[in-house]
Amino acid sequence: MVHNSPRNAIDGNRLKAQGMVAGVSDMIYLRDNQPPLCIEIKLPKGKQQANQITWQEIAESTGAKYVVVRSLDEFKALLDANP
Question: How many C-alpha atoms does 59 have within 13 Å on its Cβ side?
Fold first, then answer.
């Protein structure tokens, strides 16, 4: 799981100093002999922010797969389809 939600400004600055990048997907699933699977989790009506769309474009340009899931059932189906 990607740690991309700092608790406060001090924690946020520390994470940025360690290389945290805004917009990175919530999870990155690394699989044997397959491209990474970037998973963004949203509420049913949630929308991606601009920096998340930018990250999606970067990830996909490297061959990674990027998916937005909006429910636990979608998440389970995604993992079943991408072992």
Answer: 25
Range of the domain at 67: 23-81
CA separation for the pair 53, 61 (Å, rounded)? 12
Our count of domains for the chain comes to: 1
**Buried residues in 12-50 as b, exposed as e (16+ CB within 10 A):** eeebeeeebeebbbbeebeeeeeebbbbbbeeeeeeeee
Say what the pTM is. Answer: 0.78
Name residue 38's amino acid.
C
Measuring CA to CA, how many Å separate 74 from each of 28, 42, 44, 69? 16, 11, 11, 6
Residue range 33-53: average pLDDT?
93
How many Å is the Cα radius of gyration of the chain? Answer: 14
Q: Residue 55: pLDDT band by 50, 70, 90 thresholds?
A: very high
